[in-house]
Write a structure and sequence with these properties.
By secondary structure, the chain is α+β, with helices and mostly antiparallel strands. The protein has a domain at 28-91. It is 17% helix and 32% strand. It has 1 helix and 3 strands. It has one helix at residues 74-91; strands at 32-39, 42-54, 60-72. Strands 1-2-3 form a 3-stranded antiparallel β-sheet. The protein is extended.
């Protein structure tokens, strides 16, 4: 007898693109878009993140540094715009209250 609950779901998009999960894929956090442009049909967007660093005299120095440099086609841009709009709409929906915090020892 085999337990079907351990089977991994088939990954992919509704349009038929096969998707493979990779645990080493980076998670990119950014605070702003520092600049954008296009060259030879390739869209370029620079994302920036605010960082803090301690200074010798005490206190903290803050600055913005590049978080990532995106390069993609117009077709990929349309898909990204669509996903951002859908995710933004989802984020505006009321969220369920998270479960009460628990302490683990």
């Amino acid at each position: 007898m085999s337990d079907k609950s351990d089977a991994s779901p088939r990954l992919g998009t509704q349009s038929g693109v096969v998707y493979t999960e990779v645990a080493s894929a980076p998670i990119i956090y950014f605070d702003s878009v520092s600049c954008h442009g296009a060259m030879h049909g390739v869209i370029e967007i620079e994302l920036a993140a605010r960082i803090m660093a301690p200074i010798m005299e005490g206190g903290v120095h803050t600055s913005f540094v590049p978080a990532t440099r995106l390069r993609f086609s117009a077709l990929a841009a349309a898909a990204l715009i669509d996903s951002i709009q859908k995710a933004a709409k989802m984020a505006q929906q009321p969220q369920q209250q998270p479960p009460a915090a628990t302490t683990l020892n």
